[in-house]
Structures are given as structure tokens and as C-alpha cells.
Design a protein that fits this description.
CATH topology of the largest domain: TIM Barrel
Strand order of the largest sheet: 1-2-3-4-5-6-7-8
CATH superfamily of the largest domain: Aldolase class I
Structural class: alpha/beta
Order of helices and strands: EHEHEHEHHEHEHEHEHHEHEHHH
Strand content: 5-15%
Bound molecules: 3-hydroxy-3-carboxy-adipic acid, copper (II) ion
Shape: elongated
CATH class of the largest domain: Alpha Beta
CATH architecture of the largest domain: Alpha-Beta Barrel
Distance between the termini: 79 Å
């Protein structure tokens, strides 16, 4: 019976290893896996243990941590790679094989019959060992539906646990994803996985659409790292589901999201992008007076998340030419200075004139309010 809840397959340690700035030591892999476990992802996908001796050792170490999350090896569809992964002791095997004409021509040089035959053989082999196994048609969104269907029909018949339909090049529109998943949901009673690249900025909405069209497993990585400009970021998927579909994410520990982003940024020596979900420095920074005035009355006026649930706080700008009088009055009162509304209006006017020339820091604004107060007392 297909699983109706969201399973997050975190692929930071596999797809993420293909990111231009990534290199993970064993210790880093352990730390990230532990944080992912605390967040509550269901799967942690790792680089094929057949890739290198260290990849093998690391897969073994992670498999021995005793995590609830299933350690999953991402492998080519051949017995050699699969056997090495089994030796490493992983819980799940994710196989993939290209199903699109362009990758068959320029990458694997195997036609759809050969793909089908090999996929069935490996599925039967792994199911004979009672392993959980998924088969993905690489480049599904540029594959012919009849080709996908032939391969999927055969692996479903062979007892596969889950089929994967990745948007390998990030080319798909949500509409195509809806059609693809709806089609296969009607055809099989089986779990389905989506993996979406972000080349056209559609990774999150495509993942959301897949989920709403029958996908049970969604691939994410921390901050979206992966080949080229990456895949669905964990934070982005959570942001999308938070308001409309909370039931999918109730079981995750949202406070860990920020820790994951910060830890990854530290490990890879990168900045968290300014446009990042939740953990960017400015994700809950409010500048314009119109915004800050309303935020003071009710944060919901310009924030859609309960940011405390994510362990976050907001910043209201005070040293900018767009500043509002309410935020200055609030700051002054926090400093224990009980001027009248008119006086705060006057301070605001003066600060606006100053900040029209350059930005001021909070400290400078505070100093200005104190000196204004001292002048008043004289
Ligand atoms: C890759 C390709 C992949 C595989 C996804 C999957 C993709 O980098 O090896 O196994 O479902 O984007 O197609 O990441
Ligand atoms: Cu990918």
C-alpha cells in the first residue's frame, strides 16, 4: 500500500557531494547525518560506496550509527556497485538508469530494452535479499512516457518498492510533473519519488506539485546544494508546505533547519545566500516604515511564518531613510525613554534627514536618541 505521508529523502551527502564547493570528511558526514536525524528526515542518501574506498568506509560508518533515518546508497544499476553497497551495510538501494533518448545516446549507450532487462534483474536480485529498493529513470522529464512505462511496468512486476521520476535537468513545468505523477499513480499502487533540479527556479513548486499528484518521497538537500545550481532545498520545501499543508511536516523538528544550514555553510566555507529560506540574515528583516509600523502591531502583517517555531527572530530597520516613527518610538521606549509621540515624531524626522545621506547602525541611532534626550533635559 502506498505511503500517503511525506518522506523526505535528503541527498545532501550524495547530490550535494556533486556541488562545486563540496567536500565532506567522515566527521562532517556524521555531524550532518545526526542533524538530519534530529530534524527527522526519513532517508539519508549517500554517494555510491563503489565510487571510492572512502565513500565505502563512510557509508559503513553511517550505516552503523543506528539512526532511524534509512541510509540509502545511490548506485548505477549493476551488480558490482550493488554488492559493494550491500557490503557497506546500507538499508536501502536507490538504482538509476537513463531513460531519455539524449542520455542513452551520449551517456549510457544502452537502449530501453537493455535498461529494462538490467533493472528487472537487479530488482529481483535485491528483493530476493529482502532489501528496500527504488528504481529511477534518469532524465524522466525528457523521456518518452511509453519508454518510462515499459521499464516501470517491468520493475513493478519484479517487486520494486518505489519508482523515481527525476527532473534531472530542471526543465519541467509543474504541469508536466502533475501529468507524469498522475499518470503513474493511476497505473500502480506504489510509492513514487520526485527529485527536482533548480535550473529554471521550479524545484520547490515541482516538488510540491509532485507531492500533491501522488509522490510519497521528495528529494531535498540542505540549502539545495547539488550539480550545477542544485535541487529542491529542504528549507524551501518546508516553507512551501508550512501554511497550506502543515500535516505533511508536523513530525519534523523545524528548529534544526537553521542549524543544518549554518553547519553546512561552516563546513563548506560558504555564505548562506541572501535569498535563502529562513536562515538568511535578512529573511525576517523589515526596512520600510509602512512594513515596520504594521509588524509592530502584528508580525503576521508581513510575515507568514511563526518564526519562533524555527528558532528565529526578526530585525526592524532603524537606520534607513525609509524608517518609520513607530519603530523609533519602540526603540526609545525599550531604552527607557518615555518621550511623547510628538517628540518621537521629531526624532524620526531628524533621523530621516541624517539617514538620507547614509545608513546608520542601530548603535548610532541609539546614540542619537540619547543625545536628543540629554539635550531635552538641559
Ligand atoms: C545524478 C542524477 C540524478 C539522479 C536522481 C535519481 C538526477 O546526478 O546522478 O536517482 O533519482 O538528477 O537525475 O541526481
Ligand atoms: Cu540530481
Amino acid at each position: 500500500m502506498a505511503n500517503k505521508r511525506l518522506n523526505i529523502v535528503d541527498v545532501t551527502l550524495r547530490e550535494g557531494e556533486q556541488f562545486a564547493k563540496a567536500f565532506f570528511t567522515t566527521e562532517m558526514k556524521i555531524e550532518l547525518s545526526s542533524l538530519l536525524e534530529e530534524f527527522g528526515v526519513e532517508y539519508i542518501e549517500v554517494t555510491s560506496p563503489a565510487c571510492s574506498p572512502q565513500s565505502f568506509e563512510d557509508a559503513k560508518v553511517l550505516s552503523n550509527l543506528g539512526l532511524k533515518a534509512k541510509i540509502t546508497a545511490h548506485v548505477r544499476c549493476n551488480k558490482e556497485d550493488i554488492d559493494i553497497s550491500l557490503d557497506a551495510g546500507v538499508d536501502v538501494i536507490h538504482m538509476m538508469y537513463a531513460t531519455s533518448p539524449i542520455l542513452q545516446k551520449y551517456s549510457t549507450r544502452k537502449n530501453i530494452d537493455q535498461v529494462m532487462e538490467q533493472a528487472v534483474k537487479m530488482t529481483e536480485y535485491l528483493k530476493g535479499l529482502n532489501m528496500e529498493v527504488r528504481f529511477s529513470g534518469e532524465d524522466s522529464t525528457r523521456s518518452r512516457i511509453e519508454d518510462l512505462q515499459r521499464v516501470f511496468d517491468a520493475v513493478v512486476e519484479a517487486g520494486i518498492d518505489r519508482i523515481g521520476l527525476p527532473d534531472t535537468t530542471g526543465i519541467a513545468f509543474p504541469e508536466q510533473i502533475r501529468e507524469l505523477f498522475t499518470h503513474f499513480k493511476k497505473r500502480y499502487d506504489i510509492d513514487m519519488e520526485f527529485h527536482g533540479h533548480n535550473d529554471t527556479g521550479c524545484a520547490v513548486i515541482n516538488s510540491y506539485t509532485a507531492l500533491k499528484s501522488g509522490a510519497t518521497h521528495i528529494d531535498t538537500s540542505v540549502m539545495g546544494i547539488g550539480e550545477r545550481n542544485g535541487i529542491t532545498p529542504l528549507g524551501g520545501l518546508i516553507a512551501r508546505l508550512y501554511l497550506s499543508d502543515r500535516e505533511y511536516i508536523n513530525h519534523y523538528n523545524l528548529k534544526k533547519l537553521i542549524e543544518l544550514d549554518r553547519k553546512l555553510a561552516e563546513f563548506l566555507d560558504i555564505d548562506i545566500p541572501f535569498s535563502n529560506y529562513f536562515s538568511s540574515e535578512n529573511a525576517f528583516y523589515h526596512a520600510a516604515g509602512i512594513h515596520t509600523n504594521a509588524i509592530i502591531r502584528n508580525p503576521k502583517s508581513y510575515e507568514i511564518f511563526d518564526i519562533e517555531e524555527f528558532g528565529l527572530s526578526r530585525t526592524l530597520e532603524v537606520g534607513h531613510r525609509l524608517l518609520g516613527k513607530n519603530v523609533i518610538e519602540m526603540l526609545g521606549r525599550e531604552m527607557g525613554l518615555n518621550h511623547s509621540r510628538e517628540e518621537y515624531l521629531q526624532i524620526t524626522k531628524e533621523l530621516k534627514a541624517l539617514t538620507d545621506k547614509r545608513r546608520y547602525s542601530v548603535e548610532e541611532v541609539k546614540e542619537y536618541i540619547i543625545s536628543w534626550n540629554n539635550k531635552m533635559k538641559k
